[in-house]
Each structure stands twice: as C-alpha cells, then as structure tokens.
Design a protein that fits this description.
Layout (H helix, E strand, L loop, with lengths): L1 H25 L7 H5 L5 E6 L2 E6 L12 E6 L10 H9 L3 E5 L13 H4 L8 E6 L5
Parallel strand pairs: 3-4, 3-5
Antiparallel strand pairs: 1-2, 2-4
Length: 138
C-alpha cells in the first residue's frame, strides 16, 4: 500500500508541475511593437481612451476627425495585448475608418463580451459599424 501511495504522489506532483507550467506559459501575453505606437503612420492619430485604443485619420475639417462615418470595433485574440493590433488597425484607418481596438480584462474577450455596446453610443458621428475580432483558437 505504501509503495502505491509513493508512486501516486510522484505522478500527482508531475501532473501538477505540468499544469502549472502550462498555466504560466498561457498567461504570457503577446506584446505590441512600441515603435509603431509612439510614431504612427503619417495622417493617423492613435489615442488610448479608457477601455480601447482609437486609431483615426487626422482631422480633415472641424469635427471629430472621422469624416466618412465608418467605424470598426475590433476584439483582440485571447492573451494578446490590444495594442498589438495597432498596425492592423492603422491599415483600416488609412482607408478612412476610425478603428476602436477594445481592451479586455486579462486579455480575454470572453470576460467582457459586450464592450462594443459602450463604444458605439459615445461616437454618434459614426453611422456605419463593423465589429470583428481575432479568436483564441487556430
């Protein structure tokens, strides 16, 4: 009986160690390119506003800066820092849309699935919305 318990402890400790390793590895988030954030492409402005990043065309006339009325809300992939999507969002903003990259608690969108509902009313000048995102899966 004692030999069986000792063997089970070794197996249990091995399994616990493996699970802790996987947990610690999965908590490491992908991080953004800081140079891109601090020096956005010409004609764009990048702002961190509360629970999201706003990437928009520079102000072309009086108003909020978004003159075409299009907005894209982007939900980041699991365990990926939202700022990592700024280069992607910048490509959309260069086409004239304002891009809102949503920040999520613990970098998991499943913990705040309705964050877009708080962004849309705050920007009444946007008349067309597209919501998309990146999945945690393959």
């Amino acid at each position: 009986m004692y030999i069986f318990i000792v063997k089970n402890r070794k197996i249990t400790l091995t399994i616990i160690s493996l699970l802790l390793t996987i947990l610690l590895y999965s908590c490491a988030s992908y991080t953004p390119e800081q140079d891109f954030i601090s020096a956005p492409p010409f004609g764009l402005r990048i702002q961190e506003q509360g629970n999201f990043y706003l990437i928009s065309p520079e102000i072309k006339s009086s108003g909020s800066g978004n003159t075409d009325g299009r907005g894209v809300i982007f939900y980041p992939g699991g365990l990926v820092k939202p700022a990592s999507y700024i280069p992607f969002g910048s490509l959309l903003a260069l086409e004239g849309a304002s891009v809102y990259i949503v920040k999520m608690p613990f970098d998991l969108a499943v913990l705040a699935p309705s964050r877009a509902d708080k962004i849309r009313p705050a920007f009444p000048e946007v008349t067309e919305w597209i919501i998309g995102g990146h999945s945690l899966g393959e």
